[in-house]
Amino acid sequence: xxxxxxxxxxxxxxxxxxxxxxxxxxxxxxxxxxxxxxxxxxxxxxxxxxxxxxxxxxxxxxxxxxxxxxxxxxxxxxxxxxxxxxxxxxxxxxxxxxxxxxxxxxxxxxxxxxxxxxxxxxxxxxxxxxxxxxxxxxxxxxxxxxxxxxxxxxxxxxxxxxxxxxxxxxxxxxxxxxxxxxxxxxxxxxxxxxxxxxxxxxxxxxxxxxxxxxxxxxxxxxxxxxxxxxxxxxxxxxxxxxxxxxxxxxxxxxxxxxxxxxxxxxxxxxxxxxxxxxxxxxxxxxxxxxxxxxxxxxxxxxxxxxxxxxxxxxxxxxxxxxxxxxxxxxxxxxxxxxxxxxxxxxxxxxxxxxxxxxxxxxxxxxxxxxxxxxxxxxxxxxxxxxxxxxxxxxxxxxxxxxxxxxxxxxxxxxxx
Length: 416
Known about the structure:
single chain, alpha+beta, 2 domains, four-stranded antiparallel beta sheet, 13 helices, about 55% helix, MacB_PCD, transmembrane helix, ABC3_permease_C, membrane, transmembrane
């Protein structure tokens, strides 16, 4: 055992000396592996970071949450022209679902109205996502009111001119003033601020901090509905432990009956489940990972060929030295380990430099974006280290074997 350890130690020492004595060649070899490892780990880290940020943003929502609307949130076989002719999901539909579908914990009616401008005296904020939605959303979404309150069921039903604003909206519009009770102008109408949401924080989706919420029935007074009007949706949160397949079947069948659809007629609505959205996201993430591996694989291949080429050159340059070592009693395995270690050290150092560059990039991206946390996990670092070691072994094994099999006499004569 001690003999093998000595062989390892001496081979490793020879390899380091060879790398130190050929700095330019070492640098060029490192460059290929560094770029390869940087490419693949950067892609894996970026995809993992994107996946984690999306999952964190969706963590506050129940994956069984259902969106009943005329639009599909994922791929569908229904032609575009047919979907465009689907009737809108109206407020009356929401009332029907509430009273007719069992096992609903909470449901809310939302209108997709787009971006609006909010004004308070001389202050104006443009491009704000104002969400017309019924009061039940407070039981579904993962946000809390910090100042004031959310609008009540009575205010929601009557369409009262009230508004609940996000933390950032309140901060930018009112600065140090207390927003509660102040009147702002939205949709060209005056609304009273009755609540400010607690700070939610940055997300890759639109944060509640930058949104405002008004009763859906308030907007229904002056915005057109119907097939060409503003689209609506019913957000449904089923009771915990419910059989989702059975729940969805009951929902579809009762809603079909409500719309007067015959047995042979297709659905003219979509039941979108949040869990299906996460499955689509997982599929996209998986596809991005695969593409990343393929693209980065070419970089690793180039780096591996670079190391193999340098190792063959190294063997040729040191043929005379190999002959002398073998004539003095060096075993084949000593020569094999010497060149194999040289290739592995090259690849590992290149890989570590690549990982260092990814780490620096992760810090810079996280600092510059603020909203997106770039994560370099220990698993990805292990993958980078393992890949660089494997590249060194594969790239160096053939040159190392050819060096170990050289005849000492021929090697000395060739090198002279």
